[in-house]
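Residues pack. One example:


***
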Amino acid sequence: MRQYKLPPLLMEWRPIERSTESYFSEAATAKMLKEWLHQGDIKGIYNAALLLNTMLHQQRTITQWLAREAAMNLGKAELSDELLQAAIIKSNDDPSVSNNP
């Protein structure tokens, strides 16, 4: 069985960081929902649940799209580097192209 050596990982992934605004918004929404629950506002809670459901599915779609786009473009970046290297080698071999400024 052939074993393949994986190329070194050239990308550096940054952690996902939530903004302070995001935390405040989350707390305010939780407070609002709690107040609606204490007031017996079932319709308000139901509407919030429907909105949350829609947002969840939109976020899933966006995440899947981003992952697919990133995966497709990773290969393109490597190809671009190969084409750039080939162009540099070709220009170095061509005496009509001056590499001196």
Q: What stands out?
A: Residues 42-93 form the longest helix (52 residues).
